[in-house]
Structure formats: structure tokens, C-alpha cells
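#struct-help
A.M.: can someone run this one for me? Single chain, 329 residues.
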Amino acid sequence: MSGKKRVLSGIRATGRLHLGNYLGAVKGMLSLQDNPDYETLYMIADLHTMTTPYDPEELRVNRREVVMDYLAAGLDPKRSIIFAQSDVPEHTELAFYFATVVSVARMQHLPTFKDKVKQYPKAVTMALLNYPILMAADILAYKAELVPVGVDQEPHLEIAREIARKMNQTYGTDFPEPQRFETSGGYVPSLVGEGKMSKSVSGSYITLTDDLSTIRKRLATVPTDSGKGEKVPEKGGVANLLVLVGLFMGEDRRRTCEAQYRSEGIRYQALKDELSEAIHRELEPFQRRRNLLTEDQPYVDRVLREGSEKARRIARETLDRVRGKVGLG
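D.P.: on it. C-alpha cells below:
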């Protein structure tokens, strides 16, 4: 690895990227790609998409949508390995070997698994139970030391570390124990007034391909109040709207809005229109690049094919060594 630290990051193929993905993850990916200290691998996590209910045709389309969003945002296949998880079968084979050192009880006790069981009570599959094991295989196939994910993924990373330790102790492998670290991403709040933007929450997000009219319609749904009061709300729709103002119109504009709230009041319709235009201006360069990619599908195919070939070379080397260690080589 030429002394560079290897970093793996991925986004599930559940639809086009939104502002939360862009500011919270992709901008961090770009900063790592530009840093000579890191070797970066960026994955479309299509297999992980299959761990919860999904539509096959949508998955087929969404794989390409995420790749085009990655490229339009600035990820460079000459500087990063960009690939689809399912194009590297070494991940699933390695996950099986990892499953031999993890108990069912350990998987069932994960808070993330329990949350998904509540969310999808009629779709509690082995794929869902094994999600963290496959995630460990994604990471350890490349012996990645660093994984830029949110704190909500820490339980899964702990599983990856446990697997690395057990594989090393049981079979004499040399897996690193991957650590979570945060890139310089921003928290982008939901449009529905609670939590952050998420593709799993209808109406909560603005996609990177939305035009000005669509952005206006989406912002129009953000819940607000009378626009005036002694204290600016710290949570809910108004608070989230002001966070977006700070992100796309600047912190000075946000402070002005807060002062207006405590004095003459805010005219939300005018503010939402102004914010819509600011967000659209931010997205215009991305959308121009993406339109060019839409017209050049052979290039998108080539990026995926070449990226997967590069990823497979690394993963195959890891898998060959593991097969030898576990008695199959």
C-alpha cells in the first residue's frame, strides 16, 4: 500500500443521492481523495440494499444512479477505486468464513438489528442478521484501517474488529482492527422537522438532481410556526430550516433570520424561496456534469468495470490467504 492508509466507504443503492449524502459523506470522500496520505475505495453497496425489502428493477437502476452521482460530485476513478459491491464476489465468500467465528446470539443482540426487526417485522431474514458480517468483509477484504461512517455504525465496526481479532487468533491471519473516523462533513437536517435527511423517510430530503421548482415544492412542506417569538426554536421544522439557511446562505444570514424571529418576524415564504435558489445554485455544477454522464453511458460502464477489476485484485489476494489459513488452500 506504499505506506498509505487504506479507506473504504460506501453508500447503499437505494436511490439518487440527496443533500445529506453530499454534505455529510461525499464532500468528505472528496477531501480524502485529494489527500496523498490515503488510498481510497468507494463502493456502491448494492448487496446491503438487499438486506431489507427492495424492488429488483429499482435496484438495477439505482446502482447506476449512485455511480453517476459519485462521478458528477467529483470522485475521480483515476484517484479512487469506484466499484459495485456485487461485482466483487470475494466479499460474500469472505463473509462466510467470517460467519464461522461469530455467534448467532451476538448478531441478535445488536441494537441495529433489533431496530430493523421493529421496522421490518415481516422481513427478518438471514441477510439482515448477517449484515454486519458482510460489512466486515467489505472492510477487511481490503484491510482498510479507516472507515468514515457516522456514530450509528459504531456497533457494526465493533463487530468488524471482533472478527479481525478472532480470525487473527484462530487462524493466524493479519487483519487490522478498523477504526471509525469522521470527515469534514456537515449534518443536514430533515425537511419533516425531525432527525436528518434520509432516503428511508419520505419527504425528508432534496436530491442532488432536483430542479428549482422541485426544491421549492420540497421546502414548502417544512413545518413552521407564526414566524415570531421571544426564543428561536432549537428543534423542529423552524430550527431545521435555519440550519439549511446557514449551510447554503451563510451563518450571517442565519443570524439575521434569528434576530428577525425575535423582533419583526420572519416571512417564511420569502425565506424558503430565497433558500431554494441558493440550494439550486449550489447544485447547478453537479447537475451539468451529471447530464453529460447520462449521455455517456459507455463511460459509466467502463468506470464500474475497471473499478471492480482493481478491487477484485486486492480482495482476491486477501481471500487466497484466508483460504489457506482456514484449511482450504
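A.M.: thanks! The CA atoms of residues 41 and 118 lie 32 Å apart.
D.P.: also worth noting: The two ends are 24 Å apart (CA to CA).
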